[in-house]
Each structure stands twice: as structure tokens, then as C-alpha cells.
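Re: the 432-residue chain
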Amino acid sequence: MNFSDSRTGFRSVYLVLMAAAMLWTASACSAPRRSMSEQELQSRLAADQQRSIEQSERLAWTFLRRLETIHQANLSMGLDVPPEINVLLLSSGGQYGAFGTGVLHGWSDSRSAEFRRPVFDIVTGVSTGALIAPFAISEEDDSIRRVGDLFQQADDSLARIRGVLFFLPWRSSIFDTRVLRDRVQSEIDIDVIEQVAAAHDEHRMLLVGAVNLDLGRFHIWDMGALASLARETGNRSLFHDALISSSSIPGAFPPIEIDRVLYTDGAVALPTFLGLDRQMVGQVIQAFRDRNPGAQTPHLRIWMIVNGHINPIPQLAGQGWASVAMRSTQVISRYSIRTNLRLMQIAAELIGDDIGRPVDFRYIAVPFDVELPESASRLFDQHLMFELHRLGYRLGSDPDAWQTQAIAPDFPGTSAIRREIPFETFDAPAFP
């Protein structure tokens, strides 16, 4: 859930760091060891690589079928227009996910019919974004309101510290999250899963990211396929486990074991992801052209909701190790999202060049200059989440709030937006 994304939760980060220090001094104790032979581990690595290849091919085929479904629907209405694909990326951000739910809510209620929240063809989520994603794939506005209520009603009872001896190394986590798990399972009910399965039937994709701790790999869960499986079998446990695995803060929340593999928060590896690589998109678009002569090149639109600030909040750091470690964790988190955002922008530019039609890329984040009622000690602060939702609603309903400028995480010491370089104003001698 990446709860170091803001000043909120710093005390929780501190607890994690203190626990790490205590574990070091308690090295005589150890957690129960999991056993797996090196041969089996290597076999699992090979199987995972093959699974990733096969999954990529299935997603490409689903993407192609979605393009053709939209194209045929346009033709049936007598419209000679390019198929439009809308992709939504929901980032990590802990309780700042309330901002994302507010954006979606405001977007749904926008007075601009042209701008109003589209039906998404692809939704991806990581950590807190993964918890929002099943509601975002739905075509119903009530689903957006429902997930907004879920975040605003969250409080500290969802995750409680495991007593005074929480730091013992055989503990699975610092926090007991059984209440949180029960809440997620009750909210992600049969109706929500049915909506995800229905989207899957329409060749729309819902993907969430977790980290396979044993292999050290980012793992993409195809939640549409899991929803269809849950609908067929009546067993929703794998769907819930996959979703929760994406938001299991390492150390703070227990990892999720699925098929003897431990999974943890996807934000450990990536704060957000596209789910489609450049080569795959190019091949799908070419296959679409080959199978549909005369069809216009599809128009891709990527929308990214950053559940938090893009820039670290300036603040005077203390000289003690805990203050330095906590501040560094925050900066790492912010630069991770900024770098990821820039990579998404570059990917959109390259894909547009490949297919011969520009890809629209827009993102929205908590503005740098907004003052919020930050709490340094609470993991789920209802007042903060209420204000975040309200802020997100206001920005989400405003088409001008979405940004298109390219950020520059590669400029040392700055988080400036790229602009045209005014060479004509430079007063410097030319190179010989």
C-alpha cells in the first residue's frame, strides 16, 4: 500500500524501522523456515517465465478482440471512426487512494458530456490502486460511489499492532489485518466480481500487480480471468487473495501465500504499470489492420491517477538515523512514482510513433500546494481521507486538472515540468 508516500504514516514507517533494528538484535531467534529445494525453485522460475509469455499472448489476443468489437460496433452505427481504447492506471499510495476514488467520482459527475469518465477497456492497479480497480472497471457510477465510501469509512481498527511483542521475528507482520481482510472480502462481493467477469466477457481487462517474493518478480494477476473462474466455481478466495496480495505492505502487513508462493505489495517493484509492452501493442495494431482492411488506426488514450504527490514535500530533516531513514524512504517513494510516470509518458510517445497515431497520455495527482490535515501517527485517517476525496472530486470533474506536460525526473535536484528551451535568449559563446 506504500504508506510512506506522504508525511501521513511516518510513525508507522518508524515502527517498521524499529522492528528491523530489533530483529537484528534478536538474531538468535528466527521465523519458521519455509522449505523448497533449489531444483524446485529453479523449476518454478522457468514455469513463471513461461507463464508470463503465455499471459502476454492472451492479453494481446484479448486486446485485439476488444479492438474488433469496438470497430464492429462503430460500423453497425454507420460510423467511420477509429476504435478508441481507454486505459486507466491506478497507482499505489496507501490512504491517499481516497484521492483516486474522488477523482473517479468527480469524473463521473462532470458537466462536460464529452469529458465524462469513459468505459475503460483496460484498468491496472497496484496496492491501493488494486483495491480501487475492480470498481473502476465497472460501467456503473454506483460502483465508484461505493469504493469512495469504502475509503472514507476506513479507520485504524482495520489494522492493529500485534501487541507489545510485535517485533518478534517469527511474527508474519507488525499489524494484524484480519479486520481489513474481512472488510475487503465483504466489499468485493459477488456483485463486484460479476461485474469484473462481465467486463472480461467483453474483452476488457482488469490487471493488478503484486510481487512474487520467492522469485523476486513483478507478478500480474489477470483479475478478469479470476473473476470468470470465481463465477464458474462459486469460490471467490483466489480472487480476494490476488487482490489483497497487491496491497500487503511488506513487514507491516502479512504476505499472502498462493500455491506455496509468497506475494507482497506490488509497489515494492512498481507504483503503477501499463500491462502492455510496446512490441505487443505494435503487433496487435498490425494484426488489426491486416484483419480489418480499410479500418482506421485505433486511438489510444491513457489516463493515470497518482494517489499522492509527485514531488516530496520540502521539510527540514533531522540528523538522527530514524529521521534520515524516514525522510529517505519518502524521497525514494516520490522519485519512484515520478520516474515511473516519465517512463509511461515515453512509452506513450514511442507507441504513437510505432502505430502512426499519437497516443494521448494524461495524469492527475495531488497538487503540490494543497494543504491537507496530515497525521503523523495514523495509518487510516478518516479526516484526511475525506479531504482527499473531496479534493479528488473537485479536480476529477475539471477537464483542465489533467496534466499532459512531461515531468523531468532525470534533472538533478529538480522536479520541474519540461518546457521549450529558449535557445535564442542564451548569451553565451558558441562552441568552436
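Residues 34 and 352 are 47 Å apart (CA to CA).
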